[in-house]
Task: structure prediction
Amino acid sequence: MSSSPFLLPDHPDYAEVLTDAAVHILATRGVASFSVSAMARWMKVSPQAALNTYSRSRAIEVVTICFSKRWLRWSIGEHDWLRQQQACPLRLPRTEEERHGVRVLAALAELARGEALMGNPLPAGHLARLRDEETELLRSRLAQLSPTQLSPTQLSPAGIVSPAAERELRGLMCLLGGLRQGLVERPVKLTWQDACQQLAQAASAVASSVPDGQTTSSGLPPPSEPAA
Result:
């Protein structure tokens, strides 16, 4: 997994090394085998040494924070994505290393749910922020797909203006998540090309769904009038 976008093998920061250990363990052994001791063995240190730096709950939180940053860097993909034959606004897993990353995120979500049940909501909160940030990335990419061709001066400083209605945007996020999961299933029942085509077509349809002049200052359509 040395070529994985979800690994930083030469990073000197302990939190990033810990995250590399978690990625290896979660990708190859799953949640059931995840522990601080397992990470310590991969790092070639004693469990006591690992626990002197982070408790188990803090280790899960740190790994969630670091992995979320790696996920966003991977998800945003290439800057020239619009020039690709199938213009997918956010990335789908194509290589085995990328599929491992999707599995790791799912495993972290499971760990976060367990932590929340034990009174530690922080990992789940970080993953919720990751979903929000990825949603805003998608919103920005949809603005680039819009037939109105919004200029940079029309975008907010965060670059999140979009012609898509909020419910359509959320629906597209659900499709994105479903396609990613479909690409990591075993046996694989969906090809990367087919998944890209579905996502590209859906994104284009959402970006084209609102006529010119029908977006509000937030980039979303004005609310509909209630039925009489």
In short: The domain at 14-147+164-207 is CATH 1.10.357.10 (Tetracycline Repressor; domain 2).
